[in-house]
Amino acid sequence: MTRVLSVRDASKHYPGGVTALDRVSLDIDAGELVAIVGPSGSGKSTLLSIMGTLDRPTSGTVELAGHDVAALSDRRLSALRGRWLGFVFQQFHLTDGLSAVENVSTGLLYAGVPRRERRAKAVAALERVGLGHRITHLPHQLSGGEKQRVAIARAIVNEPALLLADEPTGALDTANGRAVLDLFHRLHAEGSTIALITHDRDIAAQLPRKVEVRDGKIVSDRTGVQVR
Amino acid sequence: MNDDVKPVRLALPDVLSLGTIGLRTRRMRAVLSALGIAVGIATMVAVTAIPESNERALMNELAALGPNLLQVNAADNPEQDFGLPAESVDMVSRIGPVTSVTAVANTHTVVRRSDLTDPRDGSGLAVLASRPDLLETLESTMYSGHFLDRAGGAVPTVVLGSVAASRLGIPSVPSDAPPPQILIGKSWFAVVGILATTPLSPEIDRSVLVGWEAAQTSLGFDGRPTVIYLRARESAIESVRAVLPATVHPQEPSRVRVTLPSDALFAKRATEQTFSVLFVGLAMVALLVGGIGVANTMVISVLERRSEIGLRRALGANRGQIRIQFLTESVALSALGGGAGTAIGVAGTAVYAIANDLPVVVPALAVAGSLGGALVVGVIAGVYPSIRAARLQPTVALASA
Lengths: 228, 401
Known about the structure:
The structure holds two protein chains of two kinds.
Chain A: E1 3-14, E2 18-29, E3 33-37, H1 44-51, E4 59-64, E5 67-68, H2 74-84, E6 85-88, H3 100-109, H4 115-128, H5 144-156, E7 162-166, H6 174-189, E8 194-198, H7 201-205, E9 209-214, E10 217-223
Parallel strand pairs in A: 3-8, 3-9, 6-7, 7-8
Antiparallel strand pairs in A: 1-2, 1-4, 4-5, 9-10
Chain B: H1 12-19, H2 21-25, H3 27-65, E1 69-74, H4 88-93, E2 98-106, E3 111-112, E4 126-130, H5 134-138, E5 142-145, E6 157-160, H6 162-168, E7 181-184, E8 187-195, H7 202-205, E9 207-211, H8 212-218, E10 227-232, H9 237-248, E11 256-259, H10 261-273, H11 277-304, H12 306-314, H13 319-355, H14 364-391, H15 394-399
Parallel strand pairs in B: 4-9, 6-8
Antiparallel strand pairs in B: 1-10, 1-11, 2-4, 2-10, 3-7, 5-8, 6-9, 7-8
Helix pairs in contact in B: 1-13, 3-10, 3-11, 3-13, 3-14, 11-13, 11-14, 13-14
């Protein structure tokens, strides 16, 4: 198994004595589908930021694809993030005024993919999430579920080594939430490595590996039956 | 492995496309904030182009009048009644490059419309004895009637300058009626013609011209000219100018003053038409206010687009790439305003010039300078907002949505 991400004894303290993470260690291997579950305020979002190299731990180390994140400059770390990670957020974060395919292309821009190759790849990613018919639609012309699928297409368009999803179904109704989850299962089956942060135990229960976070600590890390 | 962390450089088309997202998706705001710059640039272009058009018109006018006319005066006070030597006109005509020469002489008499007006009130007009070739040398034309006849009739004749005609209340000379008469000294003269305005010799406009011999017989004129006008080949104008004082008055060359009327006219008009520094100052203030408007728009844009910035960081944008995106947007906004402002300024100049019958002249330097100025304003206005955008923590930016 190739190790994609390795978090070692990571702590995050905020000014004022708040400890969001307390010596957390977590490894993710290629091909895994991991649920990181915990109530709000448990530190799971901080953990996601640190796993996603959007934030640096106060102490401890984060290794992404064998690189010690702390040793990299902003330029190098950004390049690493652009090539190795994909993000999906609860609020989609699509750019208004840009079409679906343009939004997805943005996922290739900072990874150094030449301009002429971007559109074809973006269209392919949209087809992969079942939105081949919504390519030129603007965000306000899409439903919530469709917006999230555009956001997922943007996250996977560059074939990231790790897809980080932060409450991806949080802003969706049950049916759309289920469709998005099914999509994650399918992407996993096609070989993607995915870490999904959620407060919803039912969602977490469906995933092969479940990491429970509470009060800034990992309280359990179980690999259950592989559900396909 | 090292390829993983090799920084990505954005190609220029990508930078331009990123920098115009804000403009493309928030058009009304872009137009309004570019408007400030546009007003500044338009003012700047107009205040430089309009005087330039005026100057070109003046140059054309002077070229038509001929820059080769020289005027010779007695140097000092007219009270001394210092006339030039009587033979000086002939002497001047013998200078090689001189093509024509003529002279007038002040008779120091008073002209009146009739014998009922005050005999001391000459309406500020001079009575000049004129040589018959005055019209040719000045390249002037008649506005009405004809010039002085060589062979005078029973009643001596005069020709009026344009200002003199209006002051004496004689708008034109009737061709089918007896000519109007005016009183010079104690003699009556018939007005046979009115001169067109002579821009190079305004003193002729304000004078009443009497024939040289007629002045000698009826006004007691001594035959000594007071002003000599001459034309010379343009290439030799400076050398002619240099020898004139000694030629005109060999005994006292220092009492002779030679002027180039086109120079004096040019200087006078140029000062009248130069737009004051105030206008340029006004344009600068407009540009400054426009720049502040752009900076303001950019600051708001950065605040509104925090989540977009966070997302771009998550997608792999580094700080420099965020900074260049917003800096480009600021410059693009200013360039938009600069382009529109130049167009408005040129159009305004054209309207003004055509309305005033001037040639349209837009100095390329002014346009280039204005556009360059707009870009500089855009860079300055964009520095602070783009640095702010780049400094945003990705986690904070994403959480703010």
